[in-house]
Amino acid sequence: RAKEGQKSYQVYSPAVHTQFFKRLQLEQTLYKALEKREFVLHYQPQVNINTGKITSMEALIRWNHPEQGLLYPNKFIPLAEETGLIIPIGGWVIDEACRQYKLWQQKGYSDIKISVNLSPNQFRNQDIVTVVKQALDRHNLNGHWLELEITESIIMQNVDNIISILHELKRNGIKVSIDDFGAGYSSLSYLKRLPVDRLKIDQSFVVDIPVDPNAEVITTAIISLAHNLGIGLVAEGVETDAQASFLKNRGCEIMQGYLFSRPLPVSGCDKLFNGGKSF
Ligand code: C2E
Ligand code: CA
Ligand code: CA
Ligand code: CA
Protein backbone atom coordinates (compact mmCIF):
# COMPACT_ATOMS: atom_id res chain seq x y z
CA ARG A 1 0.00 0.00 0.00
CA ALA A 2 2.82 2.31 0.78
CA LYS A 3 3.86 2.09 -2.85
CA GLU A 4 0.47 3.20 -4.13
CA GLY A 5 0.45 6.09 -1.72
CA GLN A 6 3.78 7.13 -3.09
CA LYS A 7 2.45 6.92 -6.60
CA SER A 8 -0.49 9.26 -6.03
CA TYR A 9 1.82 11.65 -4.23
CA GLN A 10 3.92 11.74 -7.36
CA VAL A 11 1.08 13.28 -9.33
CA TYR A 12 1.24 16.40 -7.19
CA SER A 13 4.98 16.54 -6.98
CA PRO A 14 6.77 19.80 -7.68
CA ALA A 15 8.47 18.14 -10.63
CA VAL A 16 5.16 17.57 -12.39
CA HIS A 17 4.10 21.12 -11.61
CA THR A 18 7.30 22.44 -13.06
CA GLN A 19 6.81 20.39 -16.18
CA PHE A 20 3.27 21.63 -16.56
CA PHE A 21 4.24 25.28 -16.20
CA LYS A 22 7.18 24.86 -18.52
CA ARG A 23 4.84 23.60 -21.18
CA LEU A 24 2.35 26.36 -20.57
CA GLN A 25 5.13 28.90 -20.81
CA LEU A 26 6.43 27.33 -23.98
CA GLU A 27 2.95 27.48 -25.44
CA GLN A 28 2.64 31.18 -24.61
CA THR A 29 6.03 32.10 -25.99
CA LEU A 30 5.36 29.97 -29.07
CA TYR A 31 2.22 31.97 -29.62
CA LYS A 32 4.18 35.22 -29.60
CA ALA A 33 7.19 33.91 -31.47
CA LEU A 34 5.72 34.54 -34.90
CA GLU A 35 4.92 38.17 -34.11
CA LYS A 36 8.36 38.64 -32.64
CA ARG A 37 9.93 37.08 -35.72
CA GLU A 38 11.84 34.49 -33.73
CA PHE A 39 11.59 31.69 -36.28
CA VAL A 40 14.26 31.13 -38.89
CA LEU A 41 14.71 28.66 -41.68
CA HIS A 42 17.87 26.70 -42.22
CA TYR A 43 18.40 24.89 -45.49
CA GLN A 44 19.96 21.54 -46.29
CA PRO A 45 21.07 20.68 -49.83
CA GLN A 46 19.96 17.61 -51.72
CA VAL A 47 22.73 16.48 -54.00
CA ASN A 48 22.90 14.45 -57.18
CA ILE A 49 25.78 12.05 -56.51
CA ASN A 50 26.44 11.50 -60.22
CA THR A 51 26.79 15.17 -61.15
CA GLY A 52 27.88 16.49 -57.76
CA LYS A 53 25.34 19.28 -58.13
CA ILE A 54 22.78 20.59 -55.66
CA THR A 55 19.29 19.79 -56.93
CA SER A 56 17.22 21.22 -54.10
CA MET A 57 17.32 22.93 -50.70
CA GLU A 58 15.06 21.66 -47.91
CA ALA A 59 13.79 24.36 -45.55
CA LEU A 60 13.94 23.31 -41.89
CA ILE A 61 12.50 25.55 -39.19
CA ARG A 62 14.33 26.64 -36.04
CA TRP A 63 13.21 28.84 -33.18
CA ASN A 64 15.48 31.48 -31.77
CA HIS A 65 14.07 31.24 -28.27
CA PRO A 66 14.76 34.39 -26.18
CA GLU A 67 16.05 32.37 -23.21
CA GLN A 68 16.73 28.86 -24.44
CA GLY A 69 18.63 29.71 -27.61
CA LEU A 70 18.20 27.91 -30.91
CA LEU A 71 15.48 25.27 -30.59
CA TYR A 72 15.04 22.41 -33.06
CA PRO A 73 11.64 21.45 -34.43
CA ASN A 74 11.24 18.37 -32.23
CA LYS A 75 11.07 20.81 -29.27
CA PHE A 76 8.13 22.82 -30.56
CA ILE A 77 6.50 21.43 -33.74
CA PRO A 78 4.53 18.75 -31.83
CA LEU A 79 3.19 21.49 -29.52
CA ALA A 80 2.42 23.69 -32.51
CA GLU A 81 0.48 20.81 -34.04
CA GLU A 82 -1.48 20.14 -30.84
CA THR A 83 -2.44 23.76 -30.35
CA GLY A 84 -3.20 24.52 -33.99
CA LEU A 85 -0.40 27.09 -34.11
CA ILE A 86 1.13 25.02 -36.88
CA ILE A 87 -1.33 26.67 -39.27
CA PRO A 88 0.07 30.22 -38.94
CA ILE A 89 3.62 28.94 -38.37
CA GLY A 90 3.41 26.64 -41.38
CA GLY A 91 2.02 29.52 -43.43
CA TRP A 92 5.00 31.61 -42.44
CA VAL A 93 7.37 28.78 -43.46
CA ILE A 94 5.85 28.58 -46.94
CA ASP A 95 6.05 32.33 -47.42
CA GLU A 96 9.57 32.68 -46.02
CA ALA A 97 10.92 29.78 -48.10
CA CYS A 98 9.45 31.37 -51.26
CA ARG A 99 10.89 34.77 -50.34
CA GLN A 100 14.37 33.33 -49.78
CA TYR A 101 14.16 31.19 -52.87
CA LYS A 102 13.31 34.25 -54.99
CA LEU A 103 16.42 35.99 -53.66
CA TRP A 104 18.56 33.01 -54.64
CA GLN A 105 17.01 32.96 -58.10
CA GLN A 106 17.75 36.65 -58.52
CA LYS A 107 21.36 35.97 -57.57
CA GLY A 108 21.48 33.45 -60.39
CA TYR A 109 21.61 30.21 -58.42
CA SER A 110 19.57 28.42 -61.01
CA ASP A 111 18.17 24.93 -61.47
CA ILE A 112 17.74 24.38 -57.78
CA LYS A 113 14.37 23.60 -56.24
CA ILE A 114 13.06 24.40 -52.78
CA SER A 115 11.45 21.81 -50.49
CA VAL A 116 9.07 22.68 -47.68
CA ASN A 117 7.71 20.35 -44.97
CA LEU A 118 3.97 20.30 -44.31
CA SER A 119 2.18 18.98 -41.23
CA PRO A 120 -0.92 16.84 -41.71
CA ASN A 121 -3.03 19.57 -40.03
CA GLN A 122 -2.12 21.98 -42.76
CA PHE A 123 -3.94 19.71 -45.18
CA ARG A 124 -6.87 19.17 -42.86
CA ASN A 125 -7.68 22.64 -41.63
CA GLN A 126 -7.24 24.99 -44.46
CA ASP A 127 -7.15 25.47 -48.13
CA ILE A 128 -3.51 24.57 -48.52
CA VAL A 129 -3.60 25.06 -52.26
CA THR A 130 -4.68 28.69 -51.87
CA VAL A 131 -2.03 29.34 -49.20
CA VAL A 132 0.70 27.93 -51.41
CA LYS A 133 -0.49 29.68 -54.57
CA GLN A 134 -0.72 33.01 -52.77
CA ALA A 135 2.85 32.67 -51.52
CA LEU A 136 4.06 31.81 -55.03
CA ASP A 137 2.20 34.79 -56.49
CA ARG A 138 3.44 37.15 -53.80
CA HIS A 139 7.02 36.30 -54.68
CA ASN A 140 6.40 35.93 -58.37
CA LEU A 141 7.51 32.30 -58.51
CA ASN A 142 6.56 29.43 -60.76
CA GLY A 143 5.12 26.46 -58.83
CA HIS A 144 7.47 24.13 -60.57
CA TRP A 145 10.34 25.22 -58.29
CA LEU A 146 8.46 24.18 -55.19
CA GLU A 147 8.31 20.75 -53.64
CA LEU A 148 6.09 19.96 -50.65
CA GLU A 149 7.09 17.15 -48.28
CA ILE A 150 4.21 15.30 -46.67
CA THR A 151 4.24 12.17 -44.52
CA GLU A 152 2.40 8.91 -44.98
CA SER A 153 0.19 9.73 -41.98
CA ILE A 154 -1.62 12.27 -44.15
CA ILE A 155 -2.99 9.44 -46.23
CA MET A 156 -4.68 7.89 -43.22
CA GLN A 157 -7.13 10.75 -43.39
CA ASN A 158 -9.62 11.37 -46.14
CA VAL A 159 -7.88 9.80 -49.12
CA ASP A 160 -10.21 11.15 -51.80
CA ASN A 161 -9.84 14.64 -50.44
CA ILE A 162 -6.04 14.30 -50.32
CA ILE A 163 -5.96 13.00 -53.88
CA SER A 164 -7.93 15.96 -55.17
CA ILE A 165 -5.64 18.39 -53.31
CA LEU A 166 -2.57 16.64 -54.75
CA HIS A 167 -4.02 16.87 -58.26
CA GLU A 168 -4.65 20.56 -57.83
CA LEU A 169 -1.09 21.11 -56.62
CA LYS A 170 0.13 19.16 -59.63
CA ARG A 171 -1.94 21.33 -61.99
CA ASN A 172 0.01 24.25 -60.59
CA GLY A 173 3.30 22.51 -61.31
CA ILE A 174 4.04 21.95 -57.62
CA LYS A 175 5.87 18.73 -56.73
CA VAL A 176 4.98 16.53 -53.80
CA SER A 177 7.16 14.00 -52.04
CA ILE A 178 6.44 11.47 -49.32
CA ASP A 179 8.79 12.10 -46.42
CA ASP A 180 10.05 9.41 -44.03
CA PHE A 181 8.92 6.77 -46.49
CA GLY A 182 8.79 3.29 -45.01
CA ALA A 183 8.67 4.52 -41.43
CA GLY A 184 4.88 4.70 -41.28
CA TYR A 185 2.54 1.77 -41.32
CA SER A 186 0.26 2.67 -44.17
CA SER A 187 -0.52 0.26 -46.95
CA LEU A 188 1.53 0.42 -50.10
CA SER A 189 -1.55 0.32 -52.31
CA TYR A 190 -2.13 4.05 -51.89
CA LEU A 191 1.01 4.71 -53.91
CA LYS A 192 -0.74 3.74 -57.12
CA ARG A 193 -3.50 6.24 -56.50
CA LEU A 194 -1.53 9.21 -55.21
CA PRO A 195 0.02 11.57 -57.71
CA VAL A 196 3.32 11.98 -55.86
CA ASP A 197 6.64 12.79 -57.49
CA ARG A 198 9.16 11.39 -55.05
CA LEU A 199 9.74 9.11 -52.10
CA LYS A 200 12.20 10.13 -49.42
CA ILE A 201 13.73 6.99 -47.97
CA ASP A 202 13.52 7.34 -44.20
CA GLN A 203 16.82 7.94 -42.47
CA SER A 204 16.19 5.12 -40.00
CA PHE A 205 16.99 2.69 -42.84
CA VAL A 206 19.89 4.65 -44.26
CA VAL A 207 21.58 4.98 -40.87
CA ASP A 208 21.88 1.19 -40.54
CA ILE A 209 23.61 0.64 -43.88
CA PRO A 210 25.82 -1.42 -44.08
CA VAL A 211 25.58 -2.69 -40.49
CA ASP A 212 22.10 -4.16 -40.61
CA PRO A 213 21.29 -6.45 -43.56
CA ASN A 214 17.57 -5.81 -43.05
CA ALA A 215 18.06 -2.09 -43.55
CA GLU A 216 19.82 -2.86 -46.83
CA VAL A 217 17.04 -5.16 -47.99
CA ILE A 218 14.35 -2.61 -47.19
CA THR A 219 16.25 0.25 -48.81
CA THR A 220 16.81 -1.83 -51.93
CA ALA A 221 13.11 -2.72 -52.02
CA ILE A 222 12.05 0.93 -51.72
CA ILE A 223 14.40 1.89 -54.53
CA SER A 224 13.04 -0.75 -56.88
CA LEU A 225 9.47 0.09 -55.88
CA ALA A 226 10.03 3.72 -56.84
CA HIS A 227 11.77 2.76 -60.09
CA ASN A 228 8.98 0.40 -61.08
CA LEU A 229 6.27 2.93 -60.28
CA GLY A 230 8.16 5.68 -62.09
CA ILE A 231 8.48 7.79 -58.93
CA GLY A 232 11.59 9.81 -58.04
CA LEU A 233 13.78 9.10 -55.00
CA VAL A 234 15.79 10.88 -52.36
CA ALA A 235 17.72 9.22 -49.57
CA GLU A 236 18.04 11.24 -46.39
CA GLY A 237 20.36 10.99 -43.43
CA VAL A 238 23.34 9.96 -45.56
CA GLU A 239 26.38 10.27 -43.32
CA THR A 240 29.03 7.92 -44.70
CA ASP A 241 30.71 7.10 -47.99
CA ALA A 242 29.61 3.50 -47.56
CA GLN A 243 25.97 4.56 -47.40
CA ALA A 244 26.37 6.87 -50.40
CA SER A 245 27.96 4.20 -52.58
CA PHE A 246 25.41 1.59 -51.54
CA LEU A 247 22.62 3.93 -52.63
CA LYS A 248 24.39 5.00 -55.79
CA ASN A 249 25.02 1.41 -56.83
CA ARG A 250 21.33 0.66 -56.50
CA GLY A 251 20.28 3.62 -58.58
CA CYS A 252 19.34 6.18 -55.95
CA GLU A 253 21.25 9.24 -57.06
CA ILE A 254 19.71 12.07 -55.04
CA MET A 255 20.94 12.23 -51.45
CA GLN A 256 20.77 14.45 -48.44
CA GLY A 257 22.72 14.22 -45.21
CA TYR A 258 25.64 15.31 -43.09
CA LEU A 259 28.07 13.65 -45.52
CA PHE A 260 27.32 16.54 -47.88
CA SER A 261 26.16 19.31 -45.58
CA ARG A 262 24.30 19.99 -42.38
CA PRO A 263 21.31 22.32 -42.60
CA LEU A 264 22.77 25.83 -42.92
CA PRO A 265 21.61 29.35 -42.15
CA VAL A 266 21.22 31.59 -45.21
CA SER A 267 24.76 32.96 -44.85
CA GLY A 268 26.14 29.42 -45.07
CA CYS A 269 24.00 28.65 -48.11
CA ASP A 270 25.30 31.73 -49.92
CA LYS A 271 28.86 30.56 -49.28
CA LEU A 272 27.96 27.14 -50.60
CA PHE A 273 26.49 28.62 -53.79
CA ASN A 274 29.21 31.22 -54.30
CA GLY A 275 31.95 28.67 -53.88
CA GLY A 276 30.20 26.74 -56.67
CA LYS A 277 30.72 23.81 -54.40
CA SER A 278 30.47 20.43 -56.03
CA PHE A 279 30.05 17.26 -54.00
P1 C2E B 1 12.57 15.69 -41.70
O1 C2E B 1 11.71 16.46 -42.62
O2 C2E B 1 12.63 14.22 -41.87
O3 C2E B 1 13.99 16.37 -41.80
C1 C2E B 1 15.20 15.67 -41.69
C2 C2E B 1 15.84 15.87 -40.33
O4 C2E B 1 17.04 15.11 -40.27
C3 C2E B 1 16.26 17.30 -40.04
O5 C2E B 1 16.15 17.50 -38.64
C4 C2E B 1 17.73 17.30 -40.46
O6 C2E B 1 18.49 18.29 -39.82
C5 C2E B 1 18.14 15.92 -40.01
N1 C2E B 1 19.28 15.41 -40.79
C6 C2E B 1 19.66 15.75 -42.02
N2 C2E B 1 20.74 15.04 -42.42
C7 C2E B 1 21.03 14.21 -41.41
C8 C2E B 1 22.04 13.21 -41.21
O7 C2E B 1 22.89 12.93 -42.06
N3 C2E B 1 22.00 12.53 -40.02
C9 C2E B 1 21.08 12.80 -39.06
N4 C2E B 1 21.14 12.11 -37.93
N5 C2E B 1 20.12 13.74 -39.22
C10 C2E B 1 20.09 14.42 -40.38
P2 C2E B 1 15.45 18.80 -38.04
O8 C2E B 1 15.83 20.00 -38.80
O9 C2E B 1 15.69 18.77 -36.57
O10 C2E B 1 13.92 18.53 -38.33
C11 C2E B 1 13.22 17.49 -37.71
C12 C2E B 1 11.84 17.34 -38.26
O11 C2E B 1 11.03 18.46 -37.94
C13 C2E B 1 11.78 17.24 -39.77
O12 C2E B 1 12.11 15.93 -40.17
C14 C2E B 1 10.35 17.61 -40.04
O13 C2E B 1 9.51 16.51 -39.85
C15 C2E B 1 10.07 18.62 -38.96
N6 C2E B 1 10.16 19.98 -39.53
C16 C2E B 1 11.25 20.73 -39.79
N7 C2E B 1 10.91 21.92 -40.33
C17 C2E B 1 9.57 21.91 -40.44
C18 C2E B 1 8.59 22.84 -40.92
O14 C2E B 1 8.91 23.93 -41.42
N8 C2E B 1 7.28 22.47 -40.85
C19 C2E B 1 6.90 21.27 -40.34
N9 C2E B 1 5.60 20.97 -40.31
N10 C2E B 1 7.77 20.37 -39.88
C20 C2E B 1 9.09 20.68 -39.92
CA1 CA C 1 11.44 16.58 -44.74
CA1 CA D 1 12.42 12.81 -43.45
CA1 CA E 1 11.49 12.84 -39.89
Automatic annotation (TrEMBL):
Location of the EAL domain: 23-277
Superkingdom field: Bacteria
Protein name: EAL domain-containing protein
Included range, full protein: 416 to 694 of 698
